[in-house]
Write a structure and sequence with these properties.
Keywords: Membrane, Transmembrane, Transmembrane helix. By secondary structure, the protein is an all-alpha fold. Helix content is 79%, strand content 0%. It has a domain of 225 residues: MFS general substrate transporter like domains (Growth Hormone, Chain: A), CATH 1.20.1250.20.
Length: 370
């Protein structure tokens, strides 16, 4: 729509129609939410109609729970903490923060995110200079920026929805989706590196889409593998990969090589002069290196896919369903116990009334006989 708007004149009716279409696309995800809520409501009604068979287990007595422990020294506490830190639970259980940070799975995911997010963020930050170097007019460069923003949102929605469908229906692991996103971003990097004519439209869309698609996958993987207990902290740890990757690939690679090429075009120095670089060579070497870094991220993500293959083949949401069923069972037990107390209280009250009324009837009969 933005590209068409730049090329043709829009009337008021055309603006209204395009705005209506965009609003429709914006609110279209609400259909998924309403459908899911309706499905949950139906499942809840079916559960209430057919209550599950309950097994009541007696809690252990207090005498069995109480154990005598000697006070531990500081060295033994440190040793136990280190042992616990390097003895993580099974995937899907709640990791502690230290257990997650030293986990090989987290380090692999973090490294893959540095490569993927750093590469796409470098392209996004330099899109204006890239367009200028390749000879695009200023209006077209503004279009590239808008396309990146729009496709960034589209990537977030598409990756979240598609990965959930593929995982639930085909047991397609989310780390493999990360691999696919990184491979797709390499296409955009190569288009920028070789300066294919009129290819920056496609490159900007691919870059924005892949940058947006990467983050829902990373956050979902963190929550699924390391649990939800410390998710807010681990979420921010995953986000830290973006500035690290941007510094390594944007500042140290793209920025440095751009300045070197610009200095060659301006007589070997940029002190107090024009720093603009024109031509394909301005970003050729940097984006070839960025493509190589992204391929490293692809290999790292494949290692993560191999390590978590058995986890994603199983039911990763079984623990949450078991907890929900246990809570529902406890609620039903509490309700049934309350219902059984009320008839007993009524029986006791009726028995007391009969006991009080019995002597009166016998006393009345005795007086009448006298």
């Amino acid at each position: 729509m933005i590209v068409v708007q730049k090329q043709t004149h829009f009337s008021h009716a055309a603006y209204a129609a395009s705005a209506a279409g965009l609003l429709l696309l914006l609110f279209l995800p609400l259909i998924v939410v309403v459908r899911q809520e309706y499905r949950i409501l139906k499942e809840l009604e079916e559960t209430l109609r057919e209550p599950p068979t309950l097994t009541i287990e007696e809690p252990p007595t207090a005498a069995l729970q109480m154990t005598q422990q000697e006070p531990a020294s500081s060295s033994s506490c440190l040793g136990s903490c280190l042992k616990k830190m390097f003895t993580p639970p099974a995937r899907g259980e709640d990791y502690t923060i230290l257990q997650a940070l030293v986990s090989i799975d987290m380090l692999l995911l973090f490294l893959a995110t540095i490569c993927g997010a750093g590469a796409t963020l470098t392209a996004i930050d330099n899109m204006g200079q890239i367009g200028q170097s390749l000879g695009y007019p200023s209006n077209t460069i503004n279009t590239f920026v808008s396309l990146i923003s729009i496709w960034n949102y589209a990537g977030r929605v598409a990756s979240g929805f598609a990965s959930e469908v593929l995982l639930s229906r085909y047991r397609f692991p989310r780390p493999l989706m990360v691999t696919a996103v990184l491979l797709l971003s390499c296409v955009g990097h190569l288009l920028i590196a070789f300066g294919v004519p009129q290819s920056l439209y496609v490159a900007s869309m691919l870059t924005g889409f892949c940058f947006g698609a990467l983050w829902p996958l990373v956050y979902a993987i963190i929550s699924e593998i390391f649990g939800l207990k410390y998710y807010s902290t681990l979420y921010n740890f995953g986000t830290a990969a973006s500035p690290i990757g941007a510094y390594l690939l944007n500042v140290l690679v793209a920025g440095h090589l751009y300045d070197v090429q610009a200095a060659k075009q301006h007589g070997g120095t940029l002190a107090g002069g024009d720093k603009t670089c024109i031509g394909v060579d301005c970003f050729n070497k940097s984006f070839i290196i960025i493509t190589g870094a992204t391929m490293v991220g692809v290999l790292v993500s494949l290692v993560l896919v191999w390590r978590t293959r058995n986890f994603y083949k199983g039911d990763i949401y079984a623990r949450f369903r078991d907890n929900a069923d246990a809570n529902e069972d406890r609620r039903l037990i509490h309700t049934s116990s309350n219902d059984s107390v009320i008839p007993k209280a009524e029986e006791e009250s009726t028995g007391d009334d009969n006991a009080r009324q019995g002597p009166k009837r016998r006393g009345g009969a005795h007086v009448h006989a006298a």
